[in-house]
Amino acid sequence: MDKKITTRAEYDALKNRVEMLISEVTSKGLLEPDMDNEYTREISSIGHLMADYEDEYLNILPLREKNPLLVCIENYLYAHNMKQKEGAKMLGVNESVLSQIMCGKRKITMPLAKKLHSVFNIEPSIILQFA
Prior knowledge:
- The chain contains 7 helices and no strands.
- The protein is 66% helix and 0% strand.
- It is an all-alpha fold.
């Protein structure tokens, strides 16, 4: 399985094969983390071929990682069972302002950065690096 795939038909056939293998090994209980067997090796091999094809021919953009500061804000809200509206109120900003920050449309101001530290207890180094 070292050959390179160059057509959409080959890609689709391998995709179907992987889906069938995953279904089969899942039903047999052979697809657990750190398992090494003929199925997992074949799935891995096909996955690499498919990834190479996707990179070269499909122009699929890689997943973006979330800004760690925004993750900290989300984690705080989740841990305290709060909605953005409640978090915005605690931070002294309008809900729309926090929403815009969370989706990357607005920058964090220095006063808000200070409140993120004092109210949400977010590490200053994370705020400085990712604000």
